[in-house]
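Subject: mismatched residue count in predicted assembly?

I count 295 residues in my input, but I want to confirm that the predicted structure covers every chain. Input:
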Amino acid sequence: MTLTLASLDITANYYLVLAALLFTIGAVGLLTRRNVLVMFMCVELMLNAVNLTFVSFANELNDIRGQVIVLFVLSVAAAEVAVGLGIIVAIFRRRRGATADDLDLLRDPAQ
Amino acid sequence: MEAFIFFVFGALVLAGAFGVVLARNPVHCALSLVVTLVSVAVLFLQQDAHLVAAVQVVVYAGAIVVLFLFVIMLLGVDQADTLRDPLKAQRAAAVVLGLVLLAEVLFLTGHHWATGAKASASDSIRGGPPGLGNNVERVARSLFTDFLWPFEITAALLVLAVIGAVVLARRSRSVDDVVAEDAR
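Triage response: the counts match. Full output below for your records.
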């Protein structure tokens, strides 16, 4: 059986699997990275995976509303980045360093 | 042709995502993010989402990543400690949990989806009654009729976000200064 690239039919499942991979990479990055800025970028990766899923289902079901939801997700992401980066700048003013491990103000000092 | 575009840009999406997670320098992370975002925009185009693809490039690559780069440049890059991890088991646990998450999502992907009511013909992406126009007109019709109230709430959200960002980033007087002034 020869499966040539041109004859391959790209269904919605291909896009869904790609979105799942993208979401997983973003989630693992969010858990492993220590730089707050990079953690934010990983959140953007996860949002993009969700957007890709929305557009894939919109295309599959022939429903324009899936694309409208993506516009809302985009605006929420923009608002989130504006506020989040403001918080990061405020943290930087107070203490040097943007790693998540520096933010241990609530930690029990005995440990 | 569709398969070719999907695999090329799907590979670019994953390569950019790995770049974001693995690059030591935050600037390289931001540039990898641009690769991912633009490739996702191409995949949007491939699925008849023309307006969303354009907005993706303009808002994400044009605004959000530039904002990231501004903050990176503003704060200065310290790349020495980015991959050091004080909690040894955390990274392995994160990878294991990520694989579990991937297995779950792929399990869901392979199933039949209950999609509820079918969209009305006026909400279709392709075809439908004549006079629906191109993709931008269809999105606009849905956005400004069915989704008008969420759209207005989005406007309020963006205004609040701008005010919040300005308040947070403003250089405020420290508490000690205020106490000293009150004592005077």
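Residues 10 and 56 of chain A are 11 Å apart (CA to CA). Marking this ticket as 'not a bug'.
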